[in-house]
From TrEMBL:
Ranges of residues in domain DUF7330: 21-203
InterPro entries from the UniProt entry: DUF7330
Pfam families xrefs: DUF7330
Domain of life: Eukaryota
The protein's name: DUF7330 domain-containing protein
Species of the source: Moniliophthora roreri
Amino acid sequence: MAGDPPPYYQEANKTLKTPSNLIRIIRDKGEIRERFTLDASICIGEDIIKDSEKDRKNLCVKTKGEGEIDIDVNIAENKEPIPSPTSDRKEVTIDVETFKGDVSLRLHASSPDTRPLLRVNVTSGSGIVVLSIPRSTAGVIETTSTGPVIVSDKLTQMTNIVTEEGRNRNFIVGVVDKWNKEQKDQLTVTAKYGRVYLRYDDESNEKPEVGFWTRVFGN
């Protein structure tokens, strides 16, 4: 049915079992289905990174043309305690984008006390976006879409809408005691011509039934 999330694929075509801190996949067209493990503590030598990639992402997956993207990401725990002050806390940056097609990104991570901050950007130029986040998420989700933003039952209980203006809706997710945006998770979701689904990563990956998705914002 049009507008439903893409089906969930239990096994990716290829599995990256060894943790990495630098993954970049850019294709002209075609679907991308992968599984990765990111470890923000791994050091990448400057001689490996091109000058054009100095401002790189830990994970960058893009399709310039038509192609569905289906990605599973496991985020490794910090090997050392969270530093004090927390301004020294590591971040993991993820950028997933397709020009045309559905995008499904599932993030798996442990407690915010034992993992890096999330800096995530997910975009579909024409298609729906399904973002599944870990229960440890605490911060802001910013969405832009022509269609509705649909939040699952369980995530609804931990989500408050902060602002809504036109196609833009911002949410606070999780328990946020002392607000400091720079020290909270930041996730941006854009469906230029489509709708957005938000849910936890441990919720059912089946297509939604009536009553599963309860909070709907937008038309």
